Amino acid sequence: MVQHPQAATGGAAMSTRAVTGTGPGSPASPAGRSRLGTRLVRAVSGGALRVLLIVVGLFWLVPTIGLLLSSLRTPQAMNASGWWTVFSKPAELTFTSYRKLLENGDITDSLVNTVLITVPATLLVVVIGSLAGYAFAWMEFPGRDWWFLGVVGLLVVPVQVALIPIAELFGRIGIFGSLIGVILFHVGFGLPFAVFLLRNFFAEIPRELLEAARLDGAGELRLFTRVVMPLGGPAIASLGIFQFLWVWNDMLVALIFTDSGSQPITVALQTQVRQFGNNIDVLAPGAFISMVIPLAVFFAFQRQFVSGVMAGAVK
């Protein structure tokens, strides 16, 4: 029986692919590489990766835990040993330092000032940034694109460049050294990023959805409050977290634009260190309170923050 030439050639080719490993199921083929990549992803995304992430998270929390335990110890105990010794001597833990903190008028007043600065600065940036972002995304007015380019250009202006001119301006109008001056400074430098972020997010809303709302008789204000704001919730929450953390942890602006009666917690702690370098029983609980409030805000809104980041990534 005579074998067909093509069959013989095909058999030789099959044997060659089997020897060289270039068949569809071999590791060198696209399908083989895909299956190999899938196996690697499954191996990495298993329990080993979760354990690694937990370990990294615990290391990230070590400074916070150490500060908490230090704030619950007496100054004598802190001078004698490190904070990790409380695991063998839990009797050292006490709330005496927090009672002394509440009796320190400078720290408590500065904590109130921090709230009075951070909350209005965050709310104003979110509200004004949302309105401006909607206007740049969906409203037609002369020079809209050029105005938006000007807002984007403000993102590259460093804070340090504007400190002296704005300080002179606030001094002339009589708000230098007050809470209003600090709030206005944070709002002014927070708005460019807010407008840029929210404009790009609002621009991804389907035009058909807005047109349908307009056909139902919705005006611009109602369209903004009933349609755009609920859809932009994740982005607005992300912006609010960023602004809150930036203003709460700021010390440079507060150090320049506040006086002794309007200074926030960051400046008050720095002043305490400069004047009384050995009062760790007041500094430790004050620093922990200054740290734990932003952490609580972040963890409270972490779902919205992740949703905003993922929405921006998908779009």
Task: Give the topology.
Elements: H1 5-20, H2 30-44, H3 47-71, H4 75-80, H5 96-103, H6 105-138, H7 144-153, H8 159-173, H9 179-202, H10 207-215, H11 220-231, H12 233-248, H13 252-257, H14 265-275, H15 280-300, H16 302-314
Description of the structure:
It contains 16 helices and no strands. The chain has helices spanning 5-20, 30-44, 47-71, 75-80, 96-103, 105-138, 144-153, 159-173, 179-202, 207-215, 220-231, 233-248, 252-257, 265-275, 280-300, 302-314. Helix 6 packs antiparallel against helix 14 (265-275) and helix 7 packs across helix 9. The protein is globular.
Strand % is under 5%
What shape does the CA trace take?
globular
Average pLDDT rating? 79
Biggest sheet details: none
Distance between the termini: 65 Å
The parts where pLDDT drops under 50 for at least 5 residues are: 5-21
Number of helices: 16
Helix content bin: over 70%
What structural class is derived from the secondary structure elements? Answer: mainly alpha
The H/E string reads HHHHHHHHHHHHHHHH
Radius of gyration: 30 Å
Tell me how many strands there are.
0
